[in-house]
């Protein structure tokens, strides 16, 4: 970043939220003389943070969260004259922490809660002997030394209680709960991990993740730039991407043995210039693209045994490559073509690696899985760098290979003997087929109805309505009326998505005392019949099992009655009429609702 800024003198990053500075972040900033990091969130200081700041003279670290200064925190800053650590949380400083600051003339340590025990005794003596401006930092603990300047405390008074002698300014160890850590080596083997554990130290150099449940190389792995060894053996990794090991320029050992790798992309190991040992042993690799090791210039050991190598002309380059410097120890053998089966990769002459026709489909499909047509039920296949392949499923199917049927009829939504047919398409649901006559129904010959409602948008009486619902389904509202006042309204909608349906809904009864209705329920109507204009189908359970098709005619006057009883009765003032039964072929209803009640008070 700074290599081209050769005349840069000052960097001011104050009043931000900087909590971490990567080692070498200021590489190339040799001309910078002032670095301001005041009012940030730094908790610790490492010498690597300031690498490259050879000309630095002023370092401002005021108002951060620094709690401890190590003896190597400022290594390399030999030209710094002013160092401010004012207003941090420093309790102790390791002996020799400022020895490398050879030009230091001003050191601001004020407003820090120093614990003046035996660990800090050296600092009092150092401040007395050095002729530098300090502002007289004071002790915060113990109580008998509070507010006394450090340089005024007698050496014997810097004392420790039993057990405190070994405390010092030790770095707080950071190690994931699932792992064991020793210095910068982290072992997380055989912990059933599927993702990187939280809390990995940023400076980890060796990471053992073998014997876990990884199916992909963790993407966050590339953020640990100091890694020198990564062991991912005995996992379930099936593919690598071109970015699996980005930014891991210090990696020297990569172990991927005993996984499920079948194909490795050409740029999988790009940038691994320090890699010396690569183990791909015990996978399912048949071929490797030429040039895959172009960036791995330091590689000296390649373990690729126990793989079914297809030793044709496409692998001739590998035969020649391993013979240069004997990079492969003579374990890898060919599995095909037939005349090469069992031959060693290292010792078989490269000229023997010949093509005699196309490889088998099984070999080709490892790097082009769509060739094996894995998608079922007419799903379309797409190669995917991470998942090997993806299937785009047609309507009515889901699953990795479109093997799961989205059968809306599986829950048996059709009642009373209705037959359900699953629909395909984006809005897949179900369509009821013609049902058998409901129990107690009779179909009588009557005047043919010319105004039967077809399935689809309804055009019945204006007081009733139908509107399109989600994904092509209909939302129907059927009204029952008396004396021009809405008596009952029942609204419902069909499926709002795949494999779902909504049939039941609490009825609305405006203007009617609820206690006059014994019970009320609504169900999806089955069958392919339809309702005449402005009509409602009432179903009265036993003993009144006769279905009533009641024409709604406002001019007839008030209607009163109980289901199963002919009405309007003579005493109601209306003309005596006999309830009509369902017309032939109209058993049930289509795209509507059947209203059921044990008693009606109309």
TrEMBL record:
Localisation per UniProt entry: Secreted
Keywords: Developmental protein, Disulfide bond, EGF-like domain, Glycoprotein, Leucine-rich repeat, Repeat, Secreted, Signal
Disulphide bridges, residue numbers: 393-402
A Pfam family matched in the record: LRRCT
Record-linked InterPro entries: Cys-rich_flank_reg_C (IPR000483), EGF (IPR000742), EGF-like_Ca-bd_dom (IPR001881), Leu-rich_rpt (IPR001611), Leu-rich_rpt_typical-subtyp (IPR003591), LRR_dom_sf (IPR032675), LRRNT (IPR000372), Notch/Slit_guidance (IPR051355)
Annotated GO MF terms: calcium ion binding; heparin binding; Roundabout binding
GO CC aspect terms: extracellular space
PANTHER family with a match to the protein in the record: SLIT HOMOLOG, SLIT HOMOLOG 1 PROTEIN
Name listed for the protein in its UniProt record: Slit guidance ligand 1
Organism: Phyllostomus discolor
